[in-house]
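As a warm-up, study this chain.
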Amino acid sequence: MKVSESYQKAYNSQYDDSIREWRKLGAKYKAENIIRLAKTITFKNVIEVGCGTGDILHYLSEQGFSSELYGVEISESGIKQVKEKNIKHLKDVLLFDGYKIPFPDNYFDLAVCSHVLEHVEHERLFLREVLRVSKNQIFEVPIDFSFFVDNKINHYLSYGHINIYTPSLLKFLLKTEGVKVKDEIFFLYPTPILKEIYKQKIKYFTAKAKNLILKTIPSLRKIKPQSYAVLTSKSEQKTTIFTPNIHL
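Now compare it with the structure written out below.
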């Protein structure tokens, strides 16, 4: 199993300099969620699966999160940007096919997948491979769900999002793959990120309308979380279907 040819082609040239600062801003908060969730576990080496341009790895390295950081990524342009950053604690970054991580079973104390699952064609196969190589995992996904999300397919496809989650749907996926959820974060984007998001949407508004919208951003944060992150580990319990009285 590997990423389909059309997806691979799209991601090979996905990362350029056009939104470099935006990626850095988002990576800071994603990395902070990782650091917060990982406080309750002991780990030495860490792999980011789907590391993109390496901005999260760069921030984790600067914070002294781990002296042994690794990354795998399907995008050639992403790998190029990771290497350009000369990340201090990065031991290796490898191009992979999206479903086969080139490390032995349980090699890593912690695997991180931040805003990756929503892009994956075969999420259960991907998830099983992440679990194979790691003892603990941190997953974060955006909360794109709405009751009319199917009316915005082109919008989400423009971001590469082909899977939609709520916190409960993510936990359902994880638990039905024999994963134990140990901790969670319901994340509300801070004002700097929301300002960047809404900047494009309101650029044609009058100055008065823009100021009013920007002032309401703190209230918008309270409507629903923008992303959800979990700390997980593998459990001994195996998932069995068509069996009554299973307690996951």
